[in-house]
Specification:
DUF3016, two-stranded antiparallel sheet, globular, single chain, signal, 5-stranded mixed beta sheet, DUF3016 family protein, alpha+beta, 4 helices
Amino acid sequence: MKIGYLFFASVLSIMSAGCAVATEDAAAANPVTTSGKVKIEWQSPDKYTDIRTATEVQKRYEQRMFEELTKALDKASAKALKGKEKLELVVTDVDLAGDLRPTFGQASTSDIRIVKDIYPPRINFSYRVLDGDQVIMVGSEKLRDMRFMDRISNIDNSSFRYEKALLSDWFENTVAPKL
């Protein structure tokens, strides 16, 4: 009888430990970034079309990208979101502008991102705008800017400038007029 209880207790212990690990893995698999009134959940970034880096540690690069895009969207939405309004996104895919190509040891040992108009930035996500706890707008988007190289000033050398512009333009043209 005592052995049965010990066996049962050990099975429960293993199961609860497995659940805790699964919860931690889910949180790590779906990072969340916030800035001001914007919150973005990055759903399964390991499955995104292209967020590879040429020069940084991949996880640090991803975190920097997530934070910069969140801050840019917060900046674009700052004037339109009033009071308790906030914007929440769940990003399901990102394809950065350009394409990562190997250099084959020419000038460097790492890859290089070639940005041409045939490799436009793309971002897929669902969103909702809340006023406190009340949902006032909801939708999903599959954004792509085929003319991204024509729209950006040549003096802007910031990281992820095409993706920031894509999100800012979307907010200003889609969400802000409805608020």
